[in-house]
Design goal:
- By secondary structure, the chain is of the alpha/beta class.
- It contains 9 helices and 8 strands.
- Helix 2 crosses helix 3.
Amino acid sequence: MRDFTVHHDGVTLAVSRGGRGRPLVLCPGLLSTQADQRELVDLLRADHDVITFDLRGHGRSSTADRYDFAAFLSDLTAVMAEVGRLDLPSPPVLAGYSLGADLAVYYASEHPDTVSGLVLVDGANPLPEPFITDADAAQFQAMREDPEMWEEFERAKGTAHQMLLGVADLIALDREIDVVRAAILERFRELDLPITMIMSLAIAGDSDEGRVPRHNANWRAGIERLVRAKPEIAASWLDGPHPLVFTHAREIAEAIRKFQRAPEFG
C-alpha cells in the first residue's frame, strides 16, 4: 500500500495504491469514499494494481468551494494525470460507481488514449426521462435533509468516511446529474473502448408502490437504450438496490475479471 496526495484547484485529494497485476483506477461516487469500498478494493488488489481516491469533500480529501459535476470531473482528471506519471505497463481500466461512472465516461471521451476500458457500476445511465421529476422534488429534498443521515455524517467527521458537503450541494447535484445523463449517450458514441455496465435491478428499492416502479423501469429503459445505440457494450444486472459496491462486492470483482478476460483485451 502507498498513500499519496494530488493537489489541484485548491483541493488536496487523498489517493491510495496497492496490489499487483493489471492497473485499475476506481472512482467512487457521490457520498461514498475509498474507505467505504474497502471490501471491493481488497478483492481487486488480489490481481490488480488498484489506484483509488476520495473526491473533494469526501473521506480524506479536503473540502472545496465547488461541488458541481465539472469540479468532480476535474478531480478525476487530476488523479489520472498523476497516474500517467506512474510508468504503468499499460493504460488502466477505469471503473466508476454511481456518479463516478458518469465521471469515467466524460473523462474517457476527452482522454480516450489514457484508459484501456471502462467498468461502470450503476451510473452513467442515458435515461429516457429525468430521474427526478417535479413531482419527485419534495421527496428527494426530504431524503437529502434526513436528520439521521446528517447525524451519521457528524459521527464520521475526522475519519476516512467523512462527508463535508452540505444539503444545498447534494440537492443541486441531484438535478445536475439528470442533466448530465440526458447528454451522456453522445459521450458513449464517441468512445471506442471495451465497456461493461453492472447495474442494479432495483435502484429505487423493491416496493410496488408509489414512484418506485417508475424509477426502476426508467433505469432499465436507459440501459436498453444504450445497448441499442452501442450493442458492443456488455450489460449485466444484479438483484439489489443502488449500493452495489457495498452489498455485491464479490460479484462486481468477478465481473471485472471476466470483462478483462474478453477477447478485446487480448
